[in-house]
Amino acid sequence: MTAAMNLGFPRMGGQRELKKALERFWSNRSDADNLEAVARQLRAAHWRLQQAAGIAHIPSNDFSLYDHVLDTAVMVGMIPERFKHLPAGVERDFAMARGVAHEGERIGAAALEMTKWFDTNYHYLVPEIGPGQGFTLGSTKPVDEFLEAKGLGITTRPVLLGPASLLLLGKAKGENFDPIALWPRLLPVYEEILRRLSAAGAPWVQIDEPCLVTDASVRALPALEPIFERLAGAAGSMNILLATYFGGLADALPTVFRLPVKAVHLDLVRGSDPLHEVLPLVQPDQVLSLGLVDGRNIWKADLTQALGRAEKAADLLGADRLWIAPSCSLLHVPVDLEGETGLDPELKNWLAFARQKLDEVSLIARGVEGGRSAIEEALAENEAALRSRRDSPRTRSLEVRRRLAAVTPEALARAHPYPARKAAQRHRTPLPILPTTTIGSFPQTDEVRKARASFRSGKWRADEYDAFLKARVVEAIRWQEEVGIDVLVHGEFERNDMVEYFGENLEGFAFTANGWVQSYGSRCVKPPVIFGDVTRRGPMTVAWAEYAQSLTARPVKGMLTGPVTILQWSFVRDDQPRRETCWQIALAIRDEVVDLEQAGIGVIQIDEPALREGLPLRHKDWADYLQWAVDAFRLASAAVRDETQIHTHMCYCEFNDIIASIAALDADVISIETSRSQMELLGAFAEFRYPNEVGPGVYDIHSPRVPSPQQIEQLLDRALAVLSPEQLWVNPDCGLKTRRWEEVKPALVALVAAARSVRQRLEGASVSAPGIP
Fold first, then answer.
1. CB atoms within 10 A of CB 762
2. Which pairs with CB-CB distance under 8 Å and at least 24 residues apart come from 34-42?
3. What gap in Å lies between CA 375 and CA 534, rounded to an integer?
């Protein structure tokens, strides 16, 4: 039979049960047993849901309390030295993920670095690998969760992040050292896990090697055949599914199908490997898994088209050698559409969340096995939904399209180059060297969230909610003045999310009630749905920026989310090029920037933390993306006068290979995440001789650790080794929305103290050596 299979399921639960359990545990309101009880309930519910949907191959070990890459690193004993004194278990795992605060005699420890999982908005924790790295079996989680499902009467297929991808995703701690070279040391741990899974009765194991769809595959290909020969030997009678996703295998295709694996999964949604080139490579004893349903977006699949592709494969291979699957794990989409009772019925009929995608997978498999007549009614319903979306006047605006077509090259550039702007900005807004600021948001406390819920539910009137928010802004402005921050923010208390807030004020966006997806750890986001052409209804942030600026003589930043980030962090329409949607958003942001300037706001920040994550996975495809993405930022930001200072912010990404494009943004100031990497990212700015100003983050806001002034001074000294004092700003890594005031206040006090101390040293050096500029 043609089997329906799945590669992974969302972890958080339909009501974010895991998020709530994690945060109770971290706040000492529950213990590890209670956390594990919630996790066990979720795993059981998800396995049963997939079983009920007709999924024949159900994954296990796709669940994680924090991150599957961290789980894999723990499994193979990749524990950094600074955490080895901690006992094995969730406390140590969470310490690696979140860091350990310095308290009294207890020595703090910085968390593992965090970066984007390929080109998604999920963040993984980056394993640290040195040339002397040893590997030992540190966890039997894959076996434990297989046995847990087996105890419920469900035979699952355990999922392992493959050894090649684990090493390629890690961070080398050493000069001229490639972690992939350590595969012979690493494999004995994988072999032991496979032997234990086989002994436990697992008929299949899924080994994920997503790095094979990237340029890094060239580093892994020479080792791939010996790696999988050893894995197949350890698996014994257990079959191996090699899963790839997020792109095509390209030159790696022949090697992959020569491997001693029983099945290969290909992503046919994002992949570029033509099916007619793939099918002849499938070995006579192999099964081909076709990823035909988009695991990263929420639009209904075209079942007729997908079925046609599957039928072609079945004609050559036979239906019994074919599996139907989502393109990748469903981690990247919400759990269930059924609860979205507030969505417009027409729009809802265009969508599919994880549960509905499982149904689509099962329908395609049934169609291959039993013929189109077996699913005739479902095909007709699907075609009607696709036709409704295709023909709907709600998706297109002639006015928006005319404006976009009229954009000229002149609209993409500031009136004068940066040196002239810098002089005008310093005349308008005099600041000390090493000016201090924050990235924008302040803690979204329980009080703030409850007030928002009361307003949205109708318990509070608009004027009551407005008064509440204004009181929070006053408190934030006064506190920043008291501490001595130079460029202030209003705190963004009115905003639920940095993308959703703007989407709610733009045409062409829709919103879900429970469309949550995991970003990292317990952090969940609810991406907007971009279904139509985008335009601004009216000013979105001006009133709050004006109010905050009226409270102080110090500059207050206007805070905006950039067009690329709004695009990347939304579920984007797939019926037109992403560039067109992004530029429509850019025009809306441009209107807001102009209105902020006219309202007297002299510093405007347009955040683009997602710029790099939008990069195609193959370097050959970068140039086109970077051109339209950079131009989108310039279109959004370039309409202001010289004296208006444009900031941008980016976090958790390497800049070395795109530094020219970062400079091409032509932002006056860029703030970046650098504290987890101990300022390593600044090397790119130094080598490139970045001309504008830079605010390297001096403390990690994703960790509960509160840095000392001395620690921040050390980071500033490292920054000053590669940047001039006139270039350097002092700020946290990212916004402070997710932190508590009890952490934020002492951290910012330390930040200001460190900036003043270094400033005094620099000024003293300047006085003692007056010839030095």
1. 17
2. 35/65, 35/90, 39/63, 39/65, 40/148, 41/17, 42/11, 42/13, 42/17, 42/18
3. 36
Q: Are strands 322-326 and 204-208 parallel, antiparallel or unpaired?
A: unpaired
Beta bridge partners of 323: 3, 289
Spatial separation of the C-alpha atoms in residues 183 and 195, rounded to whole Å: 18
Beta strands in 74-138 (DSSP E): 114-116, 123-125, 128-129
Question: CA of 579: how far to CAs of 547, 586, 620, in Å?
Answer: 35, 10, 18
Residue 546 confidence (pLDDT) above 70: yes
| 46 is a catalytic site residue | no
Task: Give dist(CA 580, CA 722) in Å, integer.
Answer: 38
Helices within 638-704 (DSSP H only): 659-664, 682-688
Return d(Cα 461, Cα 458) in angstroms, integer.
7
- What are the structure tokens assigned to 353, written together? 């969340």
**CA dist., res. 47 & res. 155, Å (int):** 10
Average pLDDT (608-632) is 94
* 8 A C-beta contact, residue 324 and residue 511: no
Task: Name the β-bridge partners of 57.
Answer: 5
As given in the structure block, the two tokens for residue 29 are: 């309101």
Q: What is 422-506+541-764's CATH number?
A: 3.20.20.210
Percent of the chain residues topping a pLDDT of 70: 97
* Mean pLDDT, residues 515-524 taken together: 95
743 alpha carbon, distance to own chain's centre? 24
Q: Are 721 and 681 contacting, i.e. CB atoms less than 8 angstroms apart? A: no
Distance CA 311, CA 108 (A): 58
Q: What is the dihedral of CA 768, 769, 771, 773, to 10 degrees?
A: -100
Q: How many Å apart are CA 248 and CA 266, to the nearest integer?
A: 8
Q: Is 406 exposed, middle or buried (0-12, 13-18, 19+ CB in 10 A)?
A: exposed
Average pLDDT, the chain: 94
415-430 pLDDT, tens digit per residue, is: 999 999 999 999 999 9
DSSP SS3 for 702 = coil
Is the confidence at residue 214, as pLDDT, over 80? yes
* Secondary structure of residue 508 in the 3-state scheme: strand
CA-to-CA distance for 558 and 606, rounded, in angstroms? 8
- Rounded to an integer, what distance in angstroms lies between the CA atom of residue 543 and that of residue 469? 12
Contact 172, 129 (CB under 8 A): yes
Please name the residues in contact with 104: beta carbons below 8 A apart, sequence gap of 6 or more: none
d(CA 126, CA 741): 28
Give the least confident one: 18-32, 251-265, 669-683: 669-683
The strands making up 645-650's β-sheet, listed across from edge to edge, are 557-561, 603-607, 645-650, 669-672, 693-696
**Residue 358: strand, helix, or coil:** helix
Provide the strand spans (E) within 169-297: 171-172, 204-208, 239-243, 263-267, 287-293
Round to whole Å and give the CA distance between 413 and 366.
55
d(CA 228, CA 165): 13
Catalytic one of 46, 332, 490, 702: 702
Comparing CA positions, the residue from 140, 154, 130, 132 lying closest to residue 48 is: 154
- 139 vs 168: CA distance, rounded Å: 21
